[in-house]
Amino acid sequence: MSLLQQDESPLDIALGRVLRIPCKFIQGQSSAPPILIKNISQQLQATGKNILPVIIKQMGEDNFIATQNVHILEAARLAKLDFIWCIVVNDQMQSQVQIESGQILQVNILTASELEIIDTLEYIKTHRAGFKTIKPQQVALAIVEYRKTKTPTSLSFLTKLRCGIGKAKVVPLSEFLVIA
Question: FRET pair for 122, CA 20 to 30 Å: which of 61, 69, 107, 177?
Answer without folding.
Answer: 69
